[in-house]
Design brief:
The protein has about 850 residues and is α/β, with parallel strands linked by helices. The chain folds into four domains: about 300 residues, 3-Layer(aba) Sandwich (Rossmann fold), CATH 3.40.50; about 170 residues, Response regulator (Rossmann fold, 3-Layer(aba) Sandwich); about 50 residues, no CATH class; about 260 residues, Rhopdopsin 7-helix transmembrane proteins, CATH 1.20.1070.10. Helices cover about 40% and strands about 15% of the residues. The chain has an eight-stranded mixed beta sheet with strand order 9-8-10-11-12-17-18-19, with helices on both faces. Helix 17 runs antiparallel to helix 18. The longest helix is centred in the last third of the chain and has 35 residues. The protein is rod-shaped.
Length: about 850
């Protein structure tokens, strides 16, 4: 259909005899050219184009050509009629505006074509024709088409003529290539932005495993699907299957059904045009495919006429991006007030009217007569739905775009155009290429608040509403706006979901579906890519010992710091438990108890000896050295307590030095007693006065010298490399041993070696004196005590080296206690027994009576 408003002045480009149309993919026979005409002109049949005349030529006006598809192969297209009427409304609104184009009237011509070939013919007719009044039509821009494929073909014709093409619904991202389509602009967002929005939608709901169904042999669908797959891969979203759909192939629909039944993905992207969607859904009604979350594109997601009782299980919860809602004041009333009398010569208008009211303007036996006064408000169709304007707003903006480009072109200040700086252009000098030049600078806001501007690719700012299909109990559908995607917002804020809106999910579920090939690897495991599967079908492995992962899908496991160890789930590093010999544990308490018992027995023995110091048995065993030995034994028992508890700097130095010095003091006393026994025996021989060389003074000096040597060794050890507290993390992986490091191993073994040297010397001397008279010596008891002492410390060395953790300290305490108890029991218990239980044997007569006769 062509609604023709012509003009009287100006010239316009034509396809003359020299124009090679074969470069556009058309020949003269296809286009219907009359080879005898001086100017080749497209011959379009009456079924395709019908001209309405409304008086004479326009004065000082320009033509906008609108290409639509009012008639499809099967029925009249309500949506396209609505878009055509929106063009008329917008042009009339602009012409009423005295500020936008003063002194200029904007005209239009609407062309209808059934199929893409007739639309191409209409485009050629539009740029190379005259109206029935004989007025030459100066076309300045062409609006359309809604199909990306048709727009592509049309732009190949218009580009050499520098005629601007503005589409309101052609969304294919391929049309953004300015090298191929230099004169193409659009007020609808490019599919690239829709694809980016769909990817962000999948990412937001964590749908990482999706299926895609696209329409076969459709540039819109094929290009969009390829773009989606490319962008989805960047965001880690995998496609389980990509299946083409054809209206005529039963094999393809069977393949789709079987694939969907066995697939594990719960989300299906239906990237098809409206006509393919209607065909696809009509066939899917026969199959029981449920539990899928359908995602739609703007081409069909707002078409409520797709809903039916049979499709309720399919479309319930469907989700997708739609062109944003808009309010256009006056448009709804304009659309509903349309009457056949407005275009009395239009057969197309009458055909639409007959369809709307199921009547006929011609006498018929099957339907009622149309009066032409029926009320469109009583009809439910795409045309009469004036509650929300989506695509209509793009048409509205497209017409205003041309008007604002002409407005900018006609501006003149100081002899030049303020936009481009070039010389001013009069109304009679306006040419399509000048309009094209000024469209790139356009940046305006329409009366309904819509902002219009273009980037370097001729694309406008992309804005979408995220809508959700919610079926009601009566079978009707409510398309609810649940979110927004706006490319003008900064990164990370482009996609936003409304907080207070209820969402119905696919399969009429209230819970969001999960669609992943593999559930994310939980903390404590690592994610490993399987080269034989898509990136979303990864494997999860438990973190090795000593490592953790504290994030979902962590690619690596992290090693815990030395002081930490993983918990059982291996998702956190916890401080390692510390281990040391504590007073609170059983072993520590027992050792402490034995040490205290040893101190008590030593003290008790001292008291017994002190109270009986005048008795012969005490005097006969060198009471001074005995009391000093008992004092050293008390210190030995007490020094064992320094090994229990958490190591500190002072306790580490004290425990080893106190142990070394007290034991040397103890062994020195035993050694002194042994020497005294030997000297005393020698003194009983006639003429021998050896005791004067080892009297009490000499005994004290010897004990002091032996002890000072150990003190000197300890001082050198502490001053050079003293013991210090250390956290041993090598023996156990999962815990820390708090211990005292030796500092200098030489110092430690020097202390032990010196103690061992004195003990061996004492043992040898005691062994040599073991058969001396019992009344004068303790050699047998000392020999036995030294045997125990040496045995304990000889076995201590391998046990100390091989014992783990706190048991090392326990072994050392046990050696100290056992050797101390050996000395205490072997040397003092027999004497205490006589003093307490056999006092009759504690007499000089009894002791002297046991002395055998010795001869030289």
């Amino acid at each position: 259909m062509a609604l023709n408003y012509a003009m009287s002045s100006g010239t316009w480009p034509s396809l003359d005899q020299g124009t090679d149309i074969s470069q556009y993919g058309y020949d003269e026979e296809t286009m219907g050219f009359d080879s005898n005409a001086s100017h080749k002109r497209a011959v379009v049949h009456d079924k395709t184009i019908l001209t309405f005349e409304r008086g004479g030529c326009l004065v000082m006006g320009w033509i906008i050509v609108i290409l639509l598809t009012l008639l499809t192969r099967t029925k009249w297209n309500d949506r396209e009629l609505k878009l055509a009427r929106t063009v008329i409304f917008t042009v009339e609104e602009i012409n009423r505006d005295s500020k936008l184009l003063p002194g200029v009237t904007l005209g239009y011509r609407l062309y209808n074509g059934c199929g893409s070939e007739n639309l191409i013919r209409a485009a050629v007719e539009a740029v190379n024709g005259e109206d029935s009044k004989g007025c030459t039509n100066q076309i300045q821009a062409l609006l359309g088409h809604s199909s990306s494929g048709v727009s592509e073909d049309i732009n190949k014709i218009l580009s050499p003529l520098s005629i601007t093409q503005v589409s309101y619904l052609s969304t294919c991202a391929c049309l953004s290539d300015k090298k191929l389509y230099p004169t193409f602009f659009r007020t609808v967002p490019s599919d690239r932005f829709q694809v980016l929005g769909l990817v962000q939608l999948m990412k937001y709901f964590d749908w990482r495993w999706v299926g895609i169904i696209y329409s076969y042999s459709s540039m819109y669908s094929e290009e969009g699907t390829a773009e989606f797959v490319e962008e989805a891969i960047k965001e880690g979203i995998c496609v389980e299957y990509i299946l083409p759909y054809s209206k005529t192939s039963e094999e393809k629909i069977n393949t789709i059904v079987e694939t969907m039944r066995v697939s594990s993905s719960k989300v299906v992207l239906l990237f098809t045009s409206l006509s393919f969607t209607k065909s696809f859904l009509s066939k899917m009604e026969n199959y029981n495919i449920t539990g899928k979350q359908w995602i739609g594109t703007e081409s069909w997601i707002t078409q409520q006429d797709l809903a039916s009782a049979e499709r309720k299980s399919i479309l319930q919860g469907a989700m997708g991006f739609a062109l944003p809602q808009a309010s256009i004041p006056g448009l709804g009333e304009f659309l509903l007030n349309f009457k056949p009398s407005d275009e009395p010569q239009s057969a197309i208008t009458k055909s639409f009217w007959e369809k709307f009211f199921d009547c006929s303007f011609s006498p018929s036996n099957t339907s009622t007569m149309c009066t032409g006064t029926e009320d469109l408000k009583t009809v439910s169709s795409d045309y009469t739905d004036v509650t929300i304007f989506r695509a209509e707003n793009n048409v509205y903006k497209a017409v205003y775009l041309v008007a604002y480009a002409l407005h900018a072109l006609l501006q003149c200040k100081d002899g030049s155009n303020p936009t481009t700086g070039k010389p001013c252009v009069s109304k009679n000098e306006v040419q399509p290429k000048l309009v094209l030049e000024h469209i790139t600078y356009v940046n305006f806001t329409t009366q309904n608040g819509a902002k219009v501007s273009f980037d370097e690719n001729g694309d406008s700012v992309a804005q979408y509403d995220l809508v959700n299909w919610q079926m009601k109990e009566d079978g009707s559908v409510e398309i609810v706006n649940i979110g927004q995607y706006d490319t003008s917002f900064p990164e990370g804020k482009k996609f936003k979901l409304k907080d207070d809106t209820k969402i119905v999910w696919g399969g009429n579920s209230n819970e969001m579906p999960r669609s992943v090939c593999r559930e994310p690897c939980s903390p404590g495991t690592r994610k490993a890519i399987n080269k034989r599967k898509p990136i979303c079908c990864f494997d999860c492995f438990e973190c090795p010992e000593g490592t953790i992962s504290n994030q979902t899908n962590s690619p690596d496991c992290l090693i815990c710091p030395p002081e930490f160890w993983p918990n059982e789930k291996r998702d956190r590093c916890l401080p390692k438990p510390t281990e040391y010999l504590s007073y609170k544990e059983v072993m520590g308490a027992l050792l402490t108890g034995f040490g205290c018992v040893g101190v008590f027995l030593s003290l008790l023995t001292s008291i017994i000896f002190l109270t009986h110091k005048e008795t012969p048995i005490v005097k006969a065993n060198n009471s001074e050295l005995s009391f000093l030995l008992l004092l050293s034994l008390k210190l030995c028992f007490l020094c064992s307590l320094t090994f229990i508890g958490q190591p500190t700097q002072w306790s580490c130095m004290l425990r080893h030095t106190a142990f070394g010095i007290t034991f040397v003091l103890c062994i020195s006393c035993v050694l002194g007693k042994t020497i005294v026994v030997l000297m005393a025996f020698r003194a009983t021989l006639p003429g021998n006065n050896v005791m004067k060389w080892f009297g009490p003074l000499q005994q004290r000096i010897s004990v002091l010298i032996f002890t000072l040597i150990q003190v000197l060794i300890c001082i050198i050890w502490l001053s050079t490399n003293p013991p210090f507290p250390k956290m041993n993390m090598k023996y156990y992986k999962e815990k820390i041993i708090l211990e005292c490091a030796l500092g200098s191993a030489v110092g430690f073994w020097a202390v032990l070696g010196y103690i061992g040297l004195l003990a061996v010397l004492c043992f040898i001397l005691a062994f040599l004196a073991r058969k001396l008279p019992d009344s004068f010596n303790e050699a047998k008891l000392i020999t036995f005590s030294m045997l125990i002492f040496c045995a304990v410390w000889i076995t201590f060395i391998p046990a100390y080296v091989s014992s783990p953790g706190k048991f090392t300290v326990a072994v050392e305490i046990f050696a100290i206690l056992s050797s101390s108890f050996g000395l205490l029991i072997c040397i003092f218990v027999p004497k205490c027994y006589i003093i307490i239980f056999r006092p009759e044997r504690n007499s000089k007569k009894h002791l002297m009576g046991k002395i055998p006769q010795r001869t030289l």
